Amino acid sequence: MWSRAISFEQGHLTISGLSARELATQFGTPTFFIDEDHFRARATAWAQSLQTNFGASAGNVYYAAKAFICTDVARWIKEEGIGIDVCTGGELAVALAGGIDPKKIEVHGNNKSVAEIERAVQVGVKTIVIDSLFEIERVAAAATKHGVRQAVMLRLTPGVEAHTHESISTAHEDVKFGFSIASGAAAVAVTEVLSHASLELRGFHCHVGSQIFGTDSFELAATRIIALMAECKSKHGIELPELDLGGGYAIAYMPGDVTVEPEDVLPALSVVVKRECAAAGLALPIISIEPGRNIVGPTTFTLYEVGTVKDVVLKDGRIRRYISVDGGMSDNIRPSLYGADFSAVLADRVSTAAHALSRVVGKHCETGDIVIRDIELPSDIAPGDLLATPATGAYGRSMASNYNHVPRPPVVAIKNGKARVIVRRENEADLLALDVKE
User: For every one of its 438 residues, what pLDDT tens digit does the chain have, with 9 covering 90 and above?
Assistant: First the structure.
């Protein structure tokens, strides 16, 4: 749940020897703090495990940029030798600015603009994952224009109901993503791609959802996709060389949760993929995966300062303490968006006070501005105290907003006992910069 460099010494949270109070004094609050070494280690662990379990058929680990990306993180990805998955022109621009080789970039998105497709083809990205029949025509036209044969994959929906929140379940039939296998849409898309000389169909892609524990949904998706690969061989006489099984591996957010590690999932996937390919008479394809949250999530925490504390009497007579911090839904929308659970600790002192039923809320003019709905925290928490929320590396800063014209927090990287800003804090000038003045 916490970055591996974090320890608690006499009630004080420290990361790589730097205390929460030191960090708050130097960088202010709210701030995201990311353990660079832990990020790199998690990225490398997935790459090594993929190689161990699939051997010569191991493809790329594509870091899912949507979890969190900036130019420094892109540089880490480049240096660790993994790839990156982007789903907008903006994410592509950051990946390129960080020095990532276009041949290590995979482009996603259910509604890529013509301009985004043109840029991807022009810079020479490895693969474009096609999500609709319209995109087949658009990518083919861009490839023809630039005189290349563009490698593509088809994103499939294999009809798998992942055990996660509806908003982050992406492989059942009634979603905006991909081509359905069951309805025959996937087979139609294969035929359409093969009709374009400017496109090279490399294989299939599937992403079953996010924050998934266990391997059942991944295994079922792989089984159904491999069956379609076998159908392509019998119908079109081609054996597709690649299979991307996406990401979605869960992390720990609450005490008692367990983060999915590479060896928890890849050995089981290896068994299923090898078995199904052998049964279908197919060579083992190149296997790629796309962990994002699982790499960056556990490496980062958010530090807040308490602003106010208020007791509210509930209908049943209990008292709930509302602890307001200086951030909220503008730096962590997930609790408000789909009920995500987080925890928090008092980060800058020891408290021996009894715990009280508490709710950690933000500063925004919104009843739903809740960071943690129910938590037991020391009853003597007061204005000026620091609270730290672990596992905020994924989707915290990347989904941050300027709601109520609040500047977005900075991201500070920690390495070898030193801290440096890699994304600066926004200021009032940034908020006003886009306003057009007559």
Answer: 899 899 998 889 999 999 999 999 999 999 999 999 999 999 999 999 999 999 999 999 999 999 999 999 999 999 999 999 999 999 999 999 999 999 999 999 999 999 999 999 999 999 999 999 999 999 999 999 999 999 999 999 988 765 444 444 444 467 788 999 999 999 999 999 999 999 999 999 999 888 888 888 889 999 999 999 999 999 999 999 999 999 999 999 999 999 999 999 999 999 999 999 999 999 999 999 999 999 999 999 999 999 999 999 999 999 999 999 999 999 999 999 989 999 999 999 999 999 999 999 999 999 999 999 999 999 999 999 999 999 999 999 999 999 999 999 999 999 999 999 999 999 999 999 999 988
Q: Are residues 263 and 357 in the same domain?
A: no
Contact 30, 429 (CB under 8 A): no
What predicted TM-score, i.e. pTM, was given to this entire model? 0.95
Q: Cβ distance 61 to 82 under 8 Å?
A: yes
Show the domain range for 324.
6-30+298-432
DSSP classification of residue 54 = H
CB atoms closer than 10 angstroms to residue 108: 27
Hey, which residues does 18 pair with through a beta bridge?
A: 15
User: Which residue in the list 70, 87, 277, 365 is annotated as catalytic?
Assistant: 365
Q: Does residue 365 have an active-site annotation?
A: yes
Among 291, 318, 337, where does a domain finish? Answer: 291
